[in-house]
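Posting this for the archive.
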Amino acid sequence: MYKSAYKNKTLLFDLDMDPLERYDIANEHPKLIAELEQAYKTWDSKNLEPGWFDPHAENVLKEEKRL
């Protein structure tokens, strides 16, 4: 599972079959995504809030529009 901040989407890849992570299979496994999202939320609830703003997502979107 990969959470893309700039795409605002959760992606899922089968690393055995797709080690280069080219084919998102999240739509084919909604139950697994829901379980992983819940596990992620539980894990993330124990983390500290970041002390900085990460402009990466904003800059990636600007770059995509430019190209």
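The mean pLDDT is 89. The chain has two helices and two strands.
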